[in-house]
């Protein structure tokens, strides 16, 4: 199964070049449509002008690197990835497949490696990626990488690791670590903290 067919099968929509005339023009149109969806998501969340936010710069640089990657300009794609990491602190490799509407207000320390659906939101240092000791199982996000559905919210510090699928509209609470599939619409919250007696009190 091809990369595009595998991704479409997992619900990560990527428009095919045949939808409009000319492969290059179609790819550029897809890039502009994805950026328009990104800006619209920022506006819906009331974060002010997206162009002035470093998180939007991270998304914009990722889109350019992904475009270069799809065109076969691999050196340019990875150079843009380096620039993105230097300028914004985000690690979004061009091999990741992210649909339009990505909201990433605080990019520093965020890692997004895998496939992400439409209108996803990543909080402070929320990340997705692979496990060092996991087999190279590919469920659509890449070898050992997760697939995140549409309208998924990852709160601050939430981490998704391995070849797992996060269903549409799922919400991952702060500092949760996800190692298995999450169903659509499900909310996953961390264990509540508790105070330990005798700690931090006056002597």
UniProtKB/TrEMBL annotation:
<feature type="region of interest" description="Disordered">
    <location>
        <begin position="1"/>
        <end position="23"/>
    </location>
</feature>
<dbReference type="GO" id="GO:0016740">
    <property type="term" value="F:transferase activity"/>
</dbReference>
<dbReference type="InterPro" id="IPR018357">
    <property type="entry name" value="Hexapep_transf_CS"/>
</dbReference>
<protein>
    <submittedName>
        <fullName>Serine O-acetyltransferase</fullName>
    </submittedName>
</protein>
<keyword id="KW-0677">Repeat</keyword>
<dbReference type="InterPro" id="IPR011004">
    <property type="entry name" value="Trimer_LpxA-like_sf"/>
</dbReference>
<keyword id="KW-0808">Transferase</keyword>
């Amino acid at each position: 199964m091809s990369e595009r067919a595998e991704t479409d099968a997992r619900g990560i929509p990527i428009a095919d070049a045949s939808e409009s005339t000319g492969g290059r023009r179609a790819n550029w149109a897809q890039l502009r449509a994805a950026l328009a969806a990104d800006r619209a998501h920022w506006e819906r969340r009331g974060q002010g002008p997206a162009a002035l936010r470093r998180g939007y710069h991270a998304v914009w640089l990722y889109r350019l690197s992904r475009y270069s990657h799809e065109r076969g300009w691999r050196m340019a794609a990875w150079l843009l990835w380096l620039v993105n990491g230097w300028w914004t602190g985000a690690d979004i490799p061009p091999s990741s497949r992210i649909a339009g509407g990505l909201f990433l207000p605080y990019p520093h320390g965020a890692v997004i490696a895998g496939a992400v659906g439409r209108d996803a939101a990543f909080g402070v240092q929320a990340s997705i990626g692979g496990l060092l000791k996991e087999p190279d199982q590919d469920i659509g996000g890449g070898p050992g990488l997760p697939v995140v559905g549409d309208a998924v919210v990852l709160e601050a510090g939430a981490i998704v690791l391995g070849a797992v699928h996060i269903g549409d509209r799922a919400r991952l609470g702060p500092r949760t670590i996800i190692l298995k599939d999450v169903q659509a619409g499900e909310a996953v919250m961390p264990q509540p903290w508790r105070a330990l007696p005798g700690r931090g009190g006056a002597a």
